[in-house]
Structures are given as structure tokens and as C-alpha cells.
Amino acid sequence: MRITALAGGVGGARFLRGLRAHLDSLDGGPHELTVIANTGDDITLSGLRVCPDVDTLLYTLGGGANEAQGWGRAEETFTVQGELTAYGVGPDWFGLGDKDFGTHIARNYWRGQGLSYSQIIERLAARWGLPEQHVRLLPMTDEPVETHVIVDRDGEQEAIHFQHWWVKERAAIPAQRFVVAGLDRANPAPGVLEAIRTADLIVLPPSNPVVSIGIVLLVPGVRDALRGTTAPVVGVSPIVGGGPVRGHADACLAALDVEVSPQGVASLYADFLDGWLVAPGEGATAEGATAEGAGGYPRDLVVQEAPLLMSSPEAATAMAAATLRLAEAVRR
Amino acid sequence: MRITALAGGVGGARFLRGLRAHLDSLDGGPHELTVIANTGDDITLSGLRVCPDVDTLLYTLGGGANEAQGWGRAEETFTVQGELTAYGVGPDWFGLGDKDFGTHIARNYWRGQGLSYSQIIERLAARWGLPEQHVRLLPMTDEPVETHVIVDRDGEQEAIHFQHWWVKERAAIPAQRFVVAGLDRANPAPGVLEAIRTADLIVLPPSNPVVSIGIVLLVPGVRDALRGTTAPVVGVSPIVGGGPVRGHADACLAALDVEVSPQGVASLYADFLDGWLVAPGEGATAEGATAEGAGGYPRDLVVQEAPLLMSSPEAATAMAAATLRLAEAVRR
């Protein structure tokens, strides 16, 4: 089986680690997993290009992530950052550990050699053992792009980098909209459209629907490929109990005037989504309800329920298993 | 008093720290010290520009050096280097610690902003408190230059980077000659020639006469400025007891067919050197001997003796004091 997933950072990475574990338990393997990562949250810090979602996917799938915080490396130290602060370089609101700096210096070195993001990720992934896991990690595009958030400051519209808004401001300033600098002239990275067109199944992990998966969907050709692929597309709601499981998806949805609910998120994917996994009690009533668009879900969407809190790797594996059961219930 | 020094790395830095301490003990201060640093041993490692002599001067004068090894930072860790090795990036023969990486990342960041080496060193020096010490650190040139060593490999002449020869090969491969890539079109950095022309005294610390001070002397205009300045030029021999106090000056002198002796080194500076401090027993016989060029020293060179082993900061301070006493005995 060949599965292709679109993903952002922590939530996507944890879900995909569970999916990888579940796939390994299935017969007929090895099953192949291709992950198309959001690169809109990339940022240049202290002169080094940092790709938070890509790195979170690498570290999580490779077994090197800080499990408590979800991003960054386990057992980190912060010597380099301390020196940069002493030199007055770099923002103090984005914490990069020493191990993490190793990744960014390696990326910077390879960029200087003229390698593309795709080629760089391939090298990083080799160290993290992704090929041996039958995981292929692709950036959504090889072009450098950056998501910016339009906010109102004293009556003036201002664009601030997504990370500034997300990390420094904790999304507390209302976002008016999101713009992705460079995306209009960006091409999908090599293999991205093919991975969507030739997959047996497309999966949307519970990543942020606006600033993670929503950005991948803006890459020219990606949304059309999802509409046109013969593979079923199933997703997992990132909204549980009226709010995001993690992060600030509520603030992102508010900017789009979309309801903070599994229904609201499903509406963003309505043109290509076939199956939708939601938390217990948040689906429509039992069988057939969705055939009429009941429960506020798009018509013809197959909705199933499962526990959606990834409180442990095992919980994530169970969620992935529920996602594959849902996939069996949908047809294109 | 305004003193200008030409300097390489460890030996120069330790001597200049002693000179700074001695100057602070003199009346009539603050006395100003300008240091013109060799940048020929600069190298790009893992995509980051590393300036070993400049950084050794910064760390030593700023109180952050690893005193045992002379270069690098005190109490270092090597997390970043370990990550780079895991990614297969960077040579394994040049050890960079995490604190040191902070300096290189800051330099890389400022280079990306378009700052010159001079401007970058000024910012680094601010963190290390050099302005408060009345020390001005200048690169010999703002152009990127690199000393290469011509060696014979299986009958073929090959140019290898100075650091490769010095650190990896430990200067064990015979050097045929040294070439400095980029130096023919290099200009002295702002302030370099002025610092030589307007000083009250020029000092040559016991730095390597070939690959440290010798490289500074190759910067267009520097040697002429030393010949033409009204300030006396006094130096300290890096050769004691027939060999270098530290490093591989013997291998460097051999490439130039110059005797490994205080006399041999003095001959390299003969056209501008006025006073020469050598180890006890290595000068000419008592008074007047040098007036006739006795003892193998250039004619008219004033030679004095003093202990030249910088076994402690106090020993370096005493050497610096002896250097200033020597300066009082010479006239231009």
C-alpha cells in the first residue's frame, strides 16, 4: 500500500509515527509512506534557514524529538543560543538548542553547495533512518516561501512572520489573513504531485488546517491533484471538544471566519475529502447521517468517530488504525 | 602611548594580554593598543567562516580562552560538532566547540548582512570588552584571503589549506612554499597603515614569523609602512633553544631556507626591525656586539635578552615589560 500524507509539525508528526507503527503491523508490507511537509513556517534565524515542520517530522519519525514539548531535540542544551544572545544576534523568542543548531548548520552548508530543499531533506532523512522505515519526506516546494500574518497594529495593517505571530505573540493578536510570500511563483517539489496522483490512500493528519495543511494546499497544483486523484482522501479532525487539541488553530480559523469545529475544518477540505475522523460524540448520528449532509458535515462525507487525543505513541497508533478503518468505508 | 602590534594566534594573544597588563601598570595612561591580526589562516568549515587567529585574540584578551590549549573557549562542549559528524558534514580534524560555533554563526549572520570583516570584528570585540581595555583589533585586510601550503605528493605539487597542513598533518609534510590566495588584490583593512604610521611603538609578538606575521607583512603596503614609520619596531623571538616555543615555526622556516634561530627570524625582519628580544644566552655578547652585526644578528639591530617562556600570564607581562625596556634602548 502506498499512502501519501500532507503534514505540519507536532500533531502531524505524532500521528504519522503512529501510522508508521500501524502500517508495520499490517500484512503485505512494506507499506510506503510519503509525507508532504509544510515549509511555509520556515524562517531564517541568525542567518540560518530553519524549517520547523520538516525538522519536527524528522526528529519525531527518527526517534530524536523532545517528547515533552513535541518539537526540538531530546536532551537539548542551549550553549550556542547563549553565545548569540551575548553577541546581540538573533531573536530571544525562538529557542534553538545545540543539537538543533547542528541540523541548521548542515542545512546551511548544503544550501551553500547549491542543493535544493528536497535534496537537503533527503540527506537529513538518511541520518534519521527514514528510508529504512519506508518513509519518504518531501517539502511541499523547493522554493523558499514564508507564511506571514496580516495583523492590525494601531489601525495599520502589518505583515509579521508566522513564527513571530505563533511563537512570540502566541497568536494572541487577531489574524486578519495569511499570505504566503513566494508561493505564487512556487512549484511543487519533485514527486509531490505524483505522490498524490499515484497513492492508494491520501491521509490528512490532525495538523493545523489553515497554517499547515492549508498552506500545502496553496502550492499550485496540489489541490487539483487531490481533487483528481483516484485515491480516497481521509482526514483526522484537529478540533476536539470545541477547540484545538494543540496550538492555535482556533485563532487561525477565526481569521477565515470558519467555525472552530470538526464541521468547520471539514468544510475547508470539502472539495476533495472523502472520509473524516472525529472525536467520540462529534460525528453525525450513526449510519447514513452524512449521506444527507447531516450534523453540519458536507454532504457525502463519511464521518466516523474515534478517540483523537495522542496522549501516547500507542494512542496515536490506535488513531492511525481508526483512520485506515475509515478509509475502508469510503470509495471515490 | 600608542602601540601597534602585528599578531597571529596563541603566542601573540598571550603576549599581548601581558602587554595590556603591563601598559595598565604604567603612568600616563590609558595607553592605546592596536592589534593587526593575521587572517590568512581563516577557513570555511561546515559553511561558516572561521577566523582562528582573530578569535584566539578575542577570547584571550577578553578572558574567555581555553587556557590549557590556548585556542578555543574555556569549558567547551561539542554537541554541534557531534551532530555535524552524524550528518556527514565538516572535517573531523578541526574541533569547534559549541561556544565557538556561537561566534562563527554570529560572524556568518553579519557577513550575510553585508558587514566587512573589520565591522564584524568590531562587534565581536565589543562583547569581549576590548574597547574598555583600549584595545583595537583590526584584520590585516577585509578581503577574504587564505594561506595555502605547497607540498609534494607523489611527485606532484599540491596546494593544501594552511589549516589542513597545520592541524591535520601537524606540519609533518615538508612545505615547499606558502601562497596566500587573494592577497595580491587585497587592500589593508581600514586603519591598518595609519596604525603603523602613527604609532609611538611597533611591537612584533613571538608569533610565527612565516605564516602569521609573515602573512601580515605580505599585505600590500604593510611592509613599506613599517620601513617608513617613525616609530621604533621591536620584536620578540619565537625561537628559543633552537626550536619554536610553540607550533611548527621550524617547519615553516625550513620552507624558506631560513635558519631556525633568533638570528634567522631577525633576518626576515631586517629591513625594518630596530630591537630584538631573545632568550637568555642567545643574544650577542653583552654591549655593542650588535653594532658590528655580531652574533649573527643584522648590523645595527639592538638585541637584548629576557626569559621568553610564557608559562603564566605574569611571565607574559614580564616579557612585555622587557620588550618596552628594549624599546627605550632603540631609536630610529
From TrEMBL, chains A, B:
GO molecular function terms listed in the Swiss-Prot or TrEMBL record: LPPG:FO 2-phospho-L-lactate transferase activity; magnesium ion binding
Keyword Ligase: no
Gene3D superfamilies reported for this sequence: CofD-like domain, CofD-like domains
Assigned keywords, A-Z: Magnesium, Transferase
EC number(s) per entry: 2.7.8.28
Pfam families (UniProt xref): CofD
Record carries keyword Transferase: yes
NCBIfam families on file: F420_cofD
Protein name: 2-phospho-L-lactate transferase
Gene, per the UniProt record: cofD
